[in-house]
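Field log, afternoon session.

UNIT: design team B
ACTIVITY: writing a sequence onto a fixed backbone
BACKBONE:
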C-alpha cells in the first residue's frame, strides 16, 4: 500500500511496514510490530512522518502516526492513533497534505 502513496519529495529512511497488507497480517505477526515501522523525511528533516506500534510487540497496541516539524519530537505537529493498517496509510496521506499546505504558505 505504501507504493500507492505519492510521497512527493519525501525520502523513506526506515520501512518495516510495507509488507503489512491487511489487519489479519498485523494480528498474526504482532512480534514484528515495533516502534520503528516507517519514517519518511521531507526537506532535510524539516518534516518527518513517523509510524510505530506502541507498545512494541503487544497485542493491545496501536499504530501511532506522527508528523514532526523541525525535529520537535516533544510536540508533534500532527498525531493520530489507530489499530487499522488502512487508516495508517490515510493518515500518512493527510500528513503529506499538511506538509504541502505548510510549504505553500511559507513560499
Amino acid at each position: 500500500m505504501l507504493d500507492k502513496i505519492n510521497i512527493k519529495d519525501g525520502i523513506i529512511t526506515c520501512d518495516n511496514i510495507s509488507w503489512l497488507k491487511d489487519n489479519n497480517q498485523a494480528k498474526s505477526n504482532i512480534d514484528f510490530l515495533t516502534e520503528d515501522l516507517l519514517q519518511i523525511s521531507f526537506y532535510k528533516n524539516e518534516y518527518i512522518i513517523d509510524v510505530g506500534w506502541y507498545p512494541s510487540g503487544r497485542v493491545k497496541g496501536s499504530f501511532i502516526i506522527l508528523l514532526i516539524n523541525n525535529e520537535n519530537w516533544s510536540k508533534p505537529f500532527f498525531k493520530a492513533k489507530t489499530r487499522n493498517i488502512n487508516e495508517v496509510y490515510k493518515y500518512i496521506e493527510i500528513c503529506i497534505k499538511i506538509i504541502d499546505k505548510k510549504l505553500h504558505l511559507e513560499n
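LOG NOTE: The CA atoms of residues 99 and 105 lie 10 Å apart.
NEXT ACTIVITY: expression trials, pending approval
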